Automatic annotation (TrEMBL):
Named cofactor requirement(s): Cu cation
PROSITE patterns tied to this protein: MULTICOPPER_OXIDASE1, MULTICOPPER_OXIDASE2
Molecular function in Gene Ontology: copper ion binding; hydroquinone:oxygen oxidoreductase activity
Annotated protein name in UniProt: Laccase
């Protein structure tokens, strides 16, 4: 009788605390090594993780802890950023060089340790120092907690598709050469799909093949890991149902063309409902500004099981390079799921209302060949990173002289941002941050300008997701435009494309203490200084405070 009672007690406890709620600690080892690689009939050594490009995929579930031990075996300094992971109180593991850590020097290592809180979907990781993310990048797959279903039909299988850029030359050498002239580095030589550039004229190149079975539905986890190009993704003869953006569920909608800025991710359902055969997958660039860019299309193949060996590939039309209506239609279709399980918690009252004007300028440069260099700025501040410590260490230890917290909330000079530009296009250098109280609410209007070269700017915020409450063309009107803001179900993202000649308004709650980077995710503009950071003060008690740094935090 006593044995039965004990068994019954254990059974009842098991029902009360089911095993499906348990979280795991997942361990990964990243070795930063060189790998000799041939693409486009050209061979070079590239920096990789574990000799792979793209690198290994991180798999986890919501609520898990991820520990990644990174060991640097190359001559370059390195850091890794877990793009889109909120890093609640764990800013030491965020990764941007000189922002939250000093770089991992050659022969040294660092352990990134973070938990995945309130997130599920597809994100990416990449190097976050110089231009090393050209070859150091990979996907992050976050499954729902055990026992929790997707809010859409369960797919037969899941496929990861990572889009990148490829240069034949040594990328770091190219960037250093461009810096000497004060100009932009060369554009890439090709786009890649899971590391494959696909067929290129005059060079035999194996492309990526996506294998499917008739009648089955697949979840495509699509990542734009390109450095400087916004891209379209399209499959001949097939529709795609978008269900997630930047690891946040959206109201499903059907499209034949997906649009992604660098750093953005999209999950979409693909149903193999066409005739057995081979279908062209195309990745093409979007550019609606008169500047140089890689205009080559990358190709892959959707291959149905049972297709004859020499079956002709069915082709697809590709969007025009300047297909702004297609990008607008896609962006406007994105809406948060805003369900009971996944509510949209949009801040309705605002403590900090900021207007950030995005400009490109020309500054004197004594070491440059032509005496000047191209720069970029927010509110006329070209951001300069420290070199002897990180911003987060300076904040945590209260080190004076590293940064100031007087970043301007509005442009110092008001002008017709998308019209006639000022004659003076010189900017001011500075390491200025914007300070926020814990749990304060923030609205940022990112305002594009026509200075030198107007174009789209994909902005990424570390440490938070935000809601895109509005977008428009021309100059933001603080009286009229907020009347049309979507405060009910705006899309929740970590990276937003500011339209060419327009603006985007985002809102978030500063409930994560630390120092958090905000920057353009076009690598050329980040290099030029199109970046800043927020310093979020601690709240009340340990659960609202930055944790101490780990013992192995790299030194500068």
């Amino acid at each position: 009788m006593e044995t039965r009672l004990v068994a019954l007690t254990i059974f009842l406890v098991a029902l009360t605390f089911p095993p499906c709620v348990l979280s795991l600690v997942r361990h990964y080892k990243f070795g930063v090594v060189l790998k000799k690689t041939t693409k486009l009939c050209s061979t070079k050594s590239i920096v990789t993780i574990n000799e792979k490009c793209p690198g290994p995929t991180l798999h986890a579930r919501e609520g898990d802890t991820v520990i990644v031990r990174v060991t640097n075996h190359v001559k370059h300094n390195i850091t890794i950023h877990w793009h889109g992971i909120k890093q609640i109180r764990t800013g030491w593991s965020d990764g941007p060089a000189y922002v939250t850590q000093c770089p991992i020097q050659p022969g040294h290592g660092y352990v990134y340790n973070f938990s995945i809180t309130g997130q599920r979907g597809t994100l990416l990781w990449h190097a976050h120092i110089t231009w090393l993310r050209a070859t150091v990048y990979g996907a992050i797959v976050i499954l729902p907690k055990k026992g929790v279903s997707y809010p859409f039909p369960k797919p037969h299988k899941e496929k990861i598709i990572i889009i990148g850029e490829w240069w034949k030359t040594d990328v770091e050498a190219m960037v250093n050469q461009a810096a000497k002239f004060g100009l932009a580095p060369n554009i890439s030589d090709a786009h890649t799909i899971n590391g494959h550039p696909g067929p290129v004229s005059g060079c035999i190149s194996k492309g990526y093949t996506l294998h499917v079975k008739s009648g089955k539905t697949y979840l495509l986890r699509i990542v734009n890991a390109a450095l400087n190009d916004e891209l379209f993704f399209k499959i001949a003869g097939h529709k795609l149902t978008v269900v997630e953006a930047d690891a946040s569920y959206v109201k499903p909608f059907e499209t034949d063309t997906i649009f992604l800025s660098p750093g953005q991710t999209t999950n979409a359902l693909l149903t193999a409902n066409q005739g057995v055969g081979k279908y062209r997958i195309a990745v093409t660039p979007f550019m609606d500004a008169p500047i140089g860019f890689d205009n080559l299309t990358a190709f892959a193949t959707l291959h149905y099981k049972g297709t004859p060996q020499y079956h002709k590939t069915i082709l697809t039309s590709i969007p025009p390079l300047n297909a702004t209506p297609i990008t607008r239609a896609f962006i406007d279709s994105l809406r948060s799921l805003n369900s009971n399980d996944y509510p949209a918690r949009v801040p309705l009252t605002i403590d900090h209302s900021l207007l950030f004007a995005i400009t490109v300028g020309l500054n004197p440069c004594d070491t440059c060949v032509f005496g000047n260099k191209l720069v970029s700025a927010i509110n006329n501040i070209t951001f300069v990173l420290p070199t002897k410590t990180s911003l987060l260490e300076a904040h945590y230890y209260n080190i004076k002289g590293v940064f100031t917290d007087d970043f301007p909330a509005t442009p110092p000079i008001v002008f017709n941002y998308t019209g006639t530009q000022p004659a003076n296009i010189q900017t001011n250098n500075g390491t200025k941050l914007y300070r926020l109280n814990f749990n304060s609410t923030v609205q940022i209007v990112l305002q594009g300008t026509a200075m030198i070269a107007p174009e789209n700017h994909p902005f990424h915020l570390h440490g938070f997701n935000f809601y895109v409450v509005g977008q428009g063309l021309g100059n933001f009107d603080p009286k009229k435009d907020p009347l049309s803001f979507n405060l009910v179900d705006p899309v929740e993202r970590n990276t937003i494309g500011v339209p060419n000649g327009g603006w985007a308004a985002i809102r978030f709650r500063a409930d994560n203490p630390g120092v958090w980077f905000l920057h353009c995710h076009l690598e050329v503009h980040t290099t030029w200084g199109l970046k800043t950071a927020f310093v979020v003060d601690n709240g009340i008690g340990p659960n609202e405070s930055q944790i101490p740094p780990p013992n192995d935090l790299p030194k500068c």
